[in-house]
Amino acid sequence: MAITRTRRSSIERRCLSKTAKRMFRGKGTHMMRLVYQAECQARNRKALGGS
């Protein structure tokens, strides 16, 4: 069985929960960033990228 790996952005590696990654897989970078911002806000963390 061949395992294919895709490159992941720093947002995907560091901050998104596994649930969010599964739910929004294939939706694009914009949606991923929106979910990331929401998770950071919910956890009272500073978001990466200066926004």
Q: In terms of topology, how is this protein built?
A:
Elements: H1 10-14, H2 18-23, H3 29-43
Descriptive account of the structure:
- Helices cover 51% and strands 0% of the residues.
- It is an all-alpha fold and 51 residues long.
- It starts with 9 loop residues before the first helix and ends in an 8-residue tail after the last helix.
- The model has no long low-confidence stretch (mean pLDDT 76).
Average of per-residue pLDDT values: 76
Radius of gyration: 12 Å
Distance between the termini: 41 Å
Class from secondary-structure proportions = mainly alpha
Query: Could you name the ranges where pLDDT drops below 50 across 5 or more consecutive residues?
Result: none
Q: What spatial form do the alpha-carbon principal axes imply?
A: elongated
- Compute the number of helices: 3
Tell me the number of strands. Answer: 0
Strand content: under 5%
Biggest β-sheet description: none
Give a summary of the structure in a few sentences.
With 51 residues, the chain is an all-alpha fold. The chain is 51% helix and 0% strand. The radius of gyration is 12 Å and the shape is elongated.
What brief labels describe this structure?
mainly alpha, about 0% strand, elongated
